[in-house]
Design a protein that fits this description.
The complex is a heterodimer of chains A (about 260) and B (about 220). Chain A is an all-alpha fold and about 260 residues long. Chain A is built from ten helices and no strands. Chain A is globular, with a radius of gyration of 18 Å. Chain B is globular. The chains are: A mainly alpha (about 260), B alpha/beta (about 220). At the A-B interface, α6, α7 and α9 of A face β5, α3 and α5 of B. Chain B: Belongs to the ABC transporter superfamily.
């Protein structure tokens, strides 16, 4: 299977994206923002549809829209109600607005139904060299951002009230992290499509956290599982001719199920 | 007057929504030892503690803790909020303590033996060693309180602001925590400002009581 260039590109793309998905996903689950991961990839879909309409690369549209959506979601203040319910409302509203825009973009881009299918379900076997380079650049940028935010992000994710009392700029940290998550969702959508992008981010991370591991161990397990799922999905897709997102989605659910049985 | 060991309020007005908690209060009280902030439910004790940390803005006036404004003073304060944390319950207790160490600094918290030993020392101090490696969500209310107290003690604070640290604890656990607080004030010179309804457990250990009532603060 590695004699074909498209398969080599697909494996390389999955490797890059899995490192990013496992790491960002771990923080998303820790912060109870699984819904954000789901929404960001859908928001990215709207951006990609807009890019198709304008005749530019869907990846750039996806990144631009996800980034704007992420910043809107991350702009949180602690007012009335709990932070998590406020987050959910904000995410839901941003998602609804962007999906409306996405529908309009697709309507304007005549005859784009095949493109819409590609955006929704991904085209990992169609990753070309420029896309690989773009994925690599996004991953380096995100990992550098996480390295910078790491300590306050972890503190604010574990104990937001105490972190704020100790002088952690919680709002700035949240904004920075959501921008990173938006970029990561766009990258994941390139591999598994907008509909299932979050499965690569959420499945491995949720499994790692269910195991009750410390942060470093949990992050390592999340990245390893993301690699296992994406590589395994590619290999199984090669053998069975069933789409990669199917194997990734099913594998993510199976991993979490096993973790639940191990850690009852 | 801004004395290094005082909590001083100068014409402070503090509100929570439409409720006035402090109405133009001017007061200076020493902070050494244990100061109990008393008041009825809903009187604004937690909001006042948050104002001391700079988390809630004053409507007017100046508040200083040990001679410093809250935004500066908060760097040397250990804070334990009211209620049990329900975030990141799957992470081991010791990781919660380690995450608080120099937690406001940018960069990656690299694994280090010194950090781990320091976290273990604080957990031992609060009697939480035996469950340090268990996920927070598997701990009882009292056990979580001990972990939170260990977290508040990270980075060697000069002052502790504790919001209902004795809540959710049985009688024996309350006395253990009170004994620990007494040790912290006597041996380490840490000043404690705390709220609590369990005044019996604090008998003889409190240096002064601040009563929050009808928009006033009385010693």
């Amino acid at each position: 299977m590695f004699e074909f260039e498209f398969m080599r590109h697909a494996f390389l793309g999955c490797t890059i994206v899995s490192v990013l998905a496992g790491t960002v996903g771990w923080f998303l689950i820790l912060r109870r923002q699984a819904f954000a991961a789901h929404a960001l990839s859908h928001i990215g879909f709207s951006g990609a549809a807009g890019a198709v309409w304008l005749g530019v690369s869907p990846l750039y549209g996806m990144i631009a829209f996800s980034l704007l959506g992420g910043l809107a979601m991350g702009n949180e203040t602690k007012g009335a109600g709990t932070l998590s319910s406020q987050r959910d409302s904000m995410i839901g509203l941003v998602l609804a607005a962007s999906l409306g825009l996405g529908t309009w973009f697709l309507h304007e881009a005549n005859g784009a139904s095949s493109m819409a299918t590609t955006l929704l379900f991904g085209d990992v076997l169609g990753i070309d060299t420029p896309t690989l380079l773009a994925l690599g650049a996004v991953t380096v940028l995100c990992m550098a951002g996480l390295a910078f935010l790491g300590r306050p992000l972890l503190f604010a994710s574990l104990m937001p009230d105490v972190a704020q009392a100790r002088g952690v700029p919680v709002r700035l940290t949240s904004l920075g992290f959501m921008a990173i998550a938006a970029l990561a969702c766009s990258a994941c959508a390139e591999v598994s499509g907008a509909l299932l992008a979050f499965s690569l981010m959420i499945g491995p991370a949720a499994t790692a956290l269910r195991l009750g591991l410390r942060p470093i161990a949990g992050l390592s397990v999340a990245v390893s599982l993301a690699l296992f799922l994406s590589w395994g999905g590619l290999a199984l897709s090669w053998v069975t001719d069933v789409p990669v997102p199917f194997w990734i989605g099913l594998g993510a659910a199976a991993c979490y199920g096993i973790a639940c049985m191990v850690r009852r | 007057m801004a004395h290094p060991d005082n909590l001083s309020l100068d014409q402070v007005t503090l509100c929570a929504g439409t409720k006035t908690i402090l109405d133009n209060v001017t007061l200076t009280v020493p902070m050494a030892g244990v100061t109990l902030l008393a008041g009825r439910n809903g009187s604004g004790k937690s909001t006042f503690l948050k104002a001391c940390l700079g988390l809630v803005r004053l409507q007017s006036g100046v508040l200083r803790l040990k001679g410093q404004p809250p935004e500066i003073a908060c760097r040397q304060i250990g804070y334990m909020p009211q209620g049990l944390s329900d975030t990141a319950l799957m992470i081991p207790a010791i990781s919660h303590v380690m995450a608080a160490m120099k937690g406001a600094r940018w960069g990656i918290p690299l694994p280090s033996r010194a950090r781990r030993e320091n976290a273990e020392r604080l957990l031992a101090l609060t009697g939480a060693s035996s469950f340090a490696r268990r996920p927070l969500g598997l701990l009882s209310g009292g056990e979580r309180q001990r972990v939170c107290l260990a977290q508040a003690l990270t980075d060697s604070p000069q002052t502790l602001l504790l919001d209902e640290p004795l809540a959710a604890l049985d009688h024996e656990a309350q006395h253990q925590i009170v004994s620990l607080l007494d040790t912290l004030t006597r041996d380490l010179g840490i000043s404690i400002l705390m709220t609590s309804h369990e005044t019996e457990a604090l008998d003889g250990k409190v240096s002064r009581i601040l009563k929050l009532k009808n928009g006033g603060l009385h010693v």
